[in-house]
Design brief:
545 residues; alpha+beta; seven-stranded mixed beta barrel
Length: 545
């Protein structure tokens, strides 16, 4: 009985526990379901939050882009249309925007540069020269570089507008890699070259395009910008070597060419007039040079003389492959020697030599022997004296050309050249830069300059040399009018280049092209008058020798 009762009690306890377990399970299941619902709600809220944040980020990005677009400043295009400028342009002119420069090349001659531009820009406003302008309506004087500014509420960007017009001269375009300034003399810069012989037609054979190696020759000049006073490259001399031989402006084919700036010469005619004298003389070679406009790194750099370089030009000067070109003027990096009576050391220009080698010994010994004969006691002897070594014709004509011009650089102080074939005599020449002549640096038409050089002073002690000087001076004197006509022809050719060069370098003050031409013509008239007076003085003095 007790066992039965115990079993009943145990069974009842078990049944009670089972009921509690079922209730607990139901409660746990309910909690789990609530947890899942809470997790789902949390995920939904997180997704909603993420979407809201993305919307905020997108909206902010759109706001930032809108602000950037509103405040973006840039010039989209710039041009001049014939329809807007019918009396100035023969065709539409599209300008190139390169960095902060706007370069416009007008392929015809213009009476002035007052033009109406067309343009498009991104920004709030655009001014040129500080003046508000309207595209296709407002006229601006582009005779000098103009500052163009695009502005927004927060930003501004400046450009410089350069307008160049055709002058009738050949064009030389030299562009260095990345438009790098040529800031170190004699340092070689890789460049692209284009020479346009006829800027209007650009017909077959009129354009040369090639790779080139460019360097500045001599001391570099720097000038202040007209716009902001910053330092910019001045009008310097350059030499470039092309990657293949070309005939430039119908000159004999070669690879090395020179650009002479004439920066010191307001007429730009001194050197070319001296070269004209050389071409009508007995000198066996005078470099060929032509007036041309230089565009350096897409910017106009004025009127230059483009022509044949003396360096490495045995084939040009006619001294043959085993001949010599020397210069009375010590040059950087080149081998030279000295004598007792030459005013400066003698640099061996060609061929390349080393001190003491065979070519160095030959030319240095020859020049010293010539000097010994010239200053020897028997120097007037036609067989054993100076004439054994020096070519009389070239020494006479080189002397007269430099004395007529009163070339202050012709006194054996700098860049006076001599040359010779190995089996020939030493000759004077070729002629070279003659900026400091025809009254520049010494406006007096009297006095000898070249005759006072030691070698020439000695030569004038020989009656044979004096007789030849008299004979040849009569020849040049009789060609005086031809020389003056050549100057007039050059002036006519440069008529449209003079104002353009003046716009760049302000050689003459003046508000119009006509003002500049009048002042230029006055300089030319002074030069021609100087030549006539110089010729008359020399005619009197040489007749007395």
């Amino acid at each position: 009985m007790k066992k039965f009762l115990f079993s009943v009690i145990v069974l009842c306890s078990l049944l009670a526990c089972s009921s509690e377990i079922d209730d607990l399970k139901k409660e746990i299941a309910g909690l789990e379901d609530a947890s899942r619902k809470l997790t789902h709600t949390k995920d939904s809220l997180q997704n909603a939050n993420d979407k809201t944040q993305n919307d905020i980020d997108n909206t902010q990005g759109q706001i930032d882009q809108a602000l950037q677009d509103i405040n973006k400043v840039t010039l989209a295009y710039f041009e001049f249309l014939h329809a807007d400028n019918p009396y100035q342009l023969v065709e539409d002119v599209k300008c190139e925007i390169a960095g902060d420069s706007v370069v416009c090349w007008v392929p015809n001659i213009m009476p002035n540069k007052v033009l109406i531009p067309q343009f498009s820009y991104q920004g709030k406003s655009l001014t040129i020269g500080g003046k508000a302008v309207e595209s296709g309506v407002t006229s601006i004087d582009f005779g000098k570089p103009q500052k163009l500014t695009v502005t927004s509420d927060l930003l501004s960007k400046d450009y410089t507008v350069y307008v160049y017009s055709y002058t009738g001269l050949p064009m030389v375009w030299l562009t260095t890699n990345n438009r790098e300034d040529i800031s170190v003399s004699d340092l070689v810069y890789e460049a692209k070259l284009k020479i346009v012989e006829n800027a209007r037609t650009r017909g077959a054979g009129d354009v040369i395009e090639a790779n080139a190696r460019l360097k500045a020759i001599g001391p570099l000049s720097w000038v202040s910008s007209k716009l902001d006073g910053s330092s910019q490259m001045g009008k310097n001399n350059y030499r470039f070597t092309i990657n293949a031989a070309y005939s430039v402006l119908d000159d004999p084919m070669n690879t090395t060419w020179e650009l002479l700036s004439n920066a010191k010469d307001a007429t730009m005619l001194h050197t070319q007039t001296g070269f004209h004298l050389g071409k009508i003389s007995n000198l066996h070679f005078t470099p060929h040079f032509h007036f041309a406009d230089l565009m350096l790194n897409e910017r106009y750099f004025g009127t230059y003389l483009l022509g044949e370089s003396i360096d490495y030009t045995n084939n040009r000067t006619g001294v043959e492959s085993n001949g010599f070109i020397v210069k009375i003027d010590a040059s950087n990096g080149r081998t030279y020697f000295k004598t007792d009576n030459l005013e400066q050391p003698v640099t061996i220009v060609s061929p390349t030599v080393f001190s003491g080698d065979e070519d160095y010994q030959f030319i240095s010994n020859y020049v010293r022997s010539a000097e010994s004969a010239l200053f020897g006691s028997n120097f007037t002897d036609a067989t054993e004296g100076w004439q054994r070594y020096l070519d009389m014709d070239s020494f006479v004509d080189w002397y007269l050309i430099n004395e007529i011009a009163k070339n202050l650089d012709g006194d054996f102080g700098a860049e006076c050249y001599m040359n010779m074939k190995r089996d020939g005599k030493l000759r004077m020449g070729p002629l070279w830069k003659m900026e400091r002549s025809f009254g520049y640096g010494d406006s007096s038409t009297s006095d000898f300059v070249i005759k006072n050089v030691k070698w020439y002073n000695r030569l004038f002690q020989d009656p044979a040399f004096v007789a030849k000087v008299k004979e040849r001076f009569t020849y040049f004197y009789n060609h005086k009018n031809d020389i003056l006509k050549e100057i007039d022809a050059d002036v006519s050719y440069l008529r449209n280049a003079i104002p353009e060069n003046n716009n760049k370098w302000e050689v003459f003050s003046g508000s119009s092209a006509d003002d500049v031409r009048k002042k230029y013509q006055k300089e030319v008239t002074t030069m021609k008058s100087w030549i006539e007076k110089r010729m008359e003085w020399l005619n009197d003095e040489i007749s007395k020798l």
